Amino acid sequence: MTGYRNVIEPKGIWRERQHTGKMTMSNTHLCPQLRVNQDEPMEEYLAHLEEAQAGEEDQAALGLLLGPGLPCKEQMRTNVINEIMSTERDYIKHLKDICEGYIKQCRKRTDMFTEEQLRTIFGNIEEIYRFQRKFLKGLEKKFNKEQPHLSEIGCCFLEHQTDFQIYSEYCNNHPNACVQLSKLMKVNKYVFFFEACRLLQKMIDISLDGFLLTPVQKICKYPLQLAELLKYTNPQHRDYKDVEAALNAMKNVARLINERKRRLENIDKIAQWQSSIEDWEGEDVLSRSSDLIFSGELTKLSQPQAKSQQRMFFLFDHQMVYCKKDLLRRDMLYYKGRVDMDHMEVMDVEDGKEKDFNISVKNALKLRSLAGDEVHLLCAKKPEQKQRWLRAFADERRQVQHDRETGFSLTEVQKKQAMLNVSSNEGCFVSSSAVTRPYYDFLLRQKHPSLPTALPQQQVFMLAEPKRKTSTFWHNIGRLTPFKK
């Protein structure tokens, strides 16, 4: 599974579901659908989208009038603007109902809920609610009530593009929320309690699990709405450049959420890998790292003796761990040390005599601490292996910089839970592989508050990037260090 995929269904199906207040789902019409199997290539989806867009543009070119005195394109832009404003107001109402109707009541019942349970079920939805109210105020200021097609709302998305990243935490937590909620709903008192909350708040007849899906749905829908808005915005319109930039910004937000989801799915594997290493010393890998960049075997030379040692190296973000293979059991690894990559510079070494170690080397690279008190000389067997390691070290620095710019980091709860998952199959959280199947079964069963939409000629649109090729890194680790726990 490699990414979120958002599916917007044909207009007729949406209208029927909007009318009934229910939503049935199939494997091909789940909206939104998180990280589903992407067997059908992206090109086919985009081809369908382009065909639909071409048909709409041909129709617009005829100069048909859809409203009194407004050309087709301006009327369509009016429709899309009105749709964005309407769904945004509805969404705020949903968030308010969750925060005031459910969370507020749950906090009063300390005999039924712990703070940790509530954090698992509701995630950071209160933070999202505060942000979305601010965002809606900005939209209202830019909304032209008399002539909606003249509204200039693109700047609102650009102004808050970094704020939308808070959805990453919510989307990553949502599978755990579904599992926790499904456990509680097996007990009648919780079923009755949640229904009482809904009635007390005078909320529509949708279960809590349906309400909790709306933020996931909403962040997937923004690029779709902006794509429609751009399509019906003339290049001469004052809002055109901002809408175009906003569309790219929201696509980037979706990609960022995708990448963070992938990173979080890796942390259980990293914890499991660490547990298989004999004689582990020092802090956990997860205390600083969350992704394996590259791994392989190198010859290591360290001062002052310059003794040659064969070691397995595992390059994570921020650090590199090296291990020794067991002499008899080559599939067993012993921890031998680590290198702090945040305080190292990587140097390409030419074949020949190396001045610091005073020895002849081939296919070598050097790690030198910024303070100059630590030097490691590493030699690969082949020139191409050396070049691959040099690229890996560059990738590690770029990823660290990207994480710093986007604010990505693991929470203490996530780190602790990953280590607990290794030693125990029970707990209020479960590993990502265990979450996946119940999570989607859960989505298929639930009633679902589909935010109303009137976007013309809605078509399938894949938000995620093409399917990521399966990495061999974890396969290699599994072969070298079988998980014993």
Automatic annotation (TrEMBL):
Entry keywords, A to Z: Cytoplasm, Guanine-nucleotide releasing factor
GO cellular component: cytoplasm
Database matches in PANTHER family: RHO GUANINE NUCLEOTIDE EXCHANGE FACTOR 4, RHO GUANINE NUCLEOTIDE EXCHANGE FACTOR 4 ISOFORM X1
Pfam families attached to this UniProt entry: RhoGEF, SOS1_NGEF_PH
Subcellular location: Cytoplasm
Positions of transmembrane segments: none
Any one GO molecular-function label of the UniProt entry: guanyl-nucleotide exchange factor activity
Classification of source organism: Eukaryota, Metazoa, Chordata, Craniata, Vertebrata
Name this polypeptide is given: Rho guanine nucleotide exchange factor 4
Protein's GO biological process: intracellular signal transduction
Main location: cytoplasm
Domain PH: 291-398
Matching PROSITE patterns: DH_1 (PS00741), DH_2 (PS50010), PH_DOMAIN (PS50003)
Domain DH: 76-260
